[in-house]
Amino acid sequence: MHEIADPIACINCPLQDCPGLRPLEEHQLAFMQGFKEGEVALARGELLISEGQSHQQLYTLLGGVLIRWRSLDDGRRQIVNFMFPGDLVGLQSAFDEPAAHAVEALVDARLCRFSRGRFTDLIASHPGLGYDITWLAAQEETALEGHIVSLGQRSARERVAYLAVWLIDRARATCLADDGNRVGLPITQVQIADMLGLSLVHTNRTLRQLLREGLVEWKSREIRIPDLDHTAEFAQYDRGAARARPFI
């Protein structure tokens, strides 16, 4: 991870133009320019947060995709979630405790950096932004509920299909994919298995079956779904109209 020498001015924030994100108002942009402490860049595979690490920063993901995961003492790993542009990173653990999870760059990523110590200043000065942060936390919990239901109740085929539709929907909303039915993300079969609680053999077999059925085409660097609505129905994934997500 390294500090970016020429950070983007908040008024020129690329997230302002993403269709699935709610743009900040002019006075909010002015406040965030003073609240923001800088920007950092991560290379693919690099850690932003390590398990057990105490950290004093919060981040907003400007570009790229991150994965949040926890590991067991024997090295087994559970991917908890994928994080997309506009997501707030670092609020998932208690402010006064070390992180219980790690955050890793799935692809090269760029993030705005804020101080945790000034978090109360943001809430006091702009209660609307404080509400937005609470809403983001609630939305992440809703996403986690969907993934937990997959682990407990969906079949292997349904789990993979659900994850594929969810990833494409999130990518389209955050300027990482166009309005089509594909997204370029280098998600490996090992990472799919770590997310969905499947063995690597079972993951490979499931991907081949979904390909034969015309539901999901999951390649090493691309996910394509021939018919998003049909695959969403198969996975019991609700693609109803979602409100634009706030960000800070």
Automatic annotation (TrEMBL):
The keyword Aminoacyl-tRNA synthetase does not apply. CDD domains: CAP_ED (cd00038). Keywords: DNA-binding, Transcription, Transcription regulation. One of its GO terms (cellular component) is cytosol. It holds the Pfam family cNMP_binding. It comes from the Bacteria. PANTHER family: CRP FAMILY TRANSCRIPTIONAL REGULATORY PROTEIN (PTHR24567), REGULATORY PROTEIN YEIL (PTHR24567:SF26). This is Nitrogen fixation regulatory protein. The gene is fixK.
